[in-house]
Amino acid sequence: MIYLQEAFAVLFANKVRSLLTITGLIIGVGAVIAIQVLGASMAGSIDGLIGNMSDNSFIIFPSQTQRNVNEAVIKLSDLQQVVDNVPSIIDGVPIGGSQDLVRNGHVEGRYRISPESANPFNNLPLLYGRKIDADDVTGATNVAVISNDVYLRLFPSGGDPTGQSIYAGPNRFLIVGVLTPPKRGFLNASFGGGIAIPWTTYVHRYLRGDQIFAARFVASDASKIGSSEVAVINELRQLRGKPDLQYQTFDKSQFSQGVAGVFNAITFVVAVIGAVSLLVAGIGIMNIMLVSVAERTREIGVRKAIGARRSQVLAQFFIEALTLCGVGCAIGWAIGVGIGALVNNVAIIKVTGSVVPVPWLQTIATTVAFAVVVTLAFGTYPAFRAASLDPIEALRYE
User: Fold this and answer.
1) Whole-model pTM?
2) What CA–CA distances, in Å, run from 17 to 108, 237, 274, 287, 384?
3) Which of 1, 194, 362, 379 is paired with 221 by a 20 to 30 Å CA distance?
4) Are 197 and 133 in contact (CB under 8 A)?
């Protein structure tokens, strides 16, 4: 404890010099901590967005970069063929949607009408009623599951609306379910908006022709997504009679990996910046510690002459270096968390629609790691140099 008190006394005795010495450390730690907070916020927002997506579904569509893209079309009849011929696929649904004027009495709004199956793409829990089931799909019934936005707009008085009817254009639909509010994600986007109806009903009411833009297939297990995508592509190539046709797929894991790749790249760049700042700061700390050893050479000689051991001198200067690094890292941590929290609460919430809590444990661990690394790398040599001084030579030092 006495060494720590002495370290703070030396630090406060040379405030300007100490502050200039740890400036690089403050910048490096602050930058890394700030990007950790912002990265956690953005990643949490996107996780919230895709958290509503089904784990065992994937979307497939023709690759638009191929020359024979018109030959790679997906047809409604392909859906059942794929379900019948690919063992791991249990359902196939056309992807699409139509904007329509939806009315409940005199209250109306324009919403998206989407095809849905008994294996929903949207994992949002229900506020009222049930989701679309297999009988709805088989019978192409006029039932609908409405999003929470639609519910709040068309039923402003609240209450359970299941069993009531709404009109989408000339089509009348019986409400069988209401979804809970969706999680808002990046750019305030969300899955689960609009009105979902059985995909067979959608085909009869809204789809013209046999060709569809894209299809969603449901695998029997989330672990079979990768192999199922390959099998479906091969089946579509076989159905078209063109083995060179190219298709693209999209699933939850691909999206997560893409997002993780972006954040890993950003983290790497910031880590490089932090490493450069760390190196500069470390050299500065080593320099100032060597100056301190030179300035206090006679003090070291006196201490050794009256019985101070080598280990005690070593501990004294090592703790001084550790204190200097610790203070720099603490200031950098405060600045980094402050910037991250400020940007998160002021700017990012407008873009993503959500605020993710600051990853305290992660930022504290990073700060401690910075302090330890800088102290070990750049504070050890001055401490050993001070401890190795000959007491007689030190007392003669002018």
Assistant:
1) 0.62
2) 69, 71, 22, 11, 22
3) 194
4) no
The DSSP secondary-structure symbol of 171 reads E
CA neighbor of 245 nearest in space, from 26, 11, 10, 66: 66
Distance separating alpha carbons of residues 110 and 50, to the nearest angstrom: 24
Cβ of 197: how many Cβ atoms within 10 Å?
27
103-142 tens-digit pLDDT: 998 899 999 999 998 888 877 889 999 999 999 999 999 9
CB atoms within 10 A of CB 230: 11
Residue 180: what residue type?
A: T
pLDDT tens by residue, 303-344: 888 877 888 888 888 888 888 888 888 888 888 888 888 877
CA atoms of 339 and 132, how far apart (whole Å): 46
- What is the 8-class DSSP label of residue 181? P
Token pair for residue 155? 């039923």
Within the chain, strands assigned E span: 57-62, 74-75, 89-95, 98-104, 107-116, 126-129, 143-146, 165-168, 171-179, 195-198, 211-212, 214-219, 247-251
Helix (H, G, I), strand (E, B) or coil at 55: coil
Query: Does residue 13 surpass a pLDDT of 60?
Result: yes
Q: DSSP string of 184-246?
A: P-GGG--SS-SEEEEHHHHHHHT--SSEESEEEEEESSGGGHHHHHHHHHHHHHHHHT-TT--
Classify each residue of 119-146 as buried b or exposed e, where b means 16 or more C-beta atoms within 10 Å of its C-beta: bbbbebeebbbebbeeebbeebbbbbbb
Q: Give the C-alpha separation, 46 to 50, whole Å.
A: 6
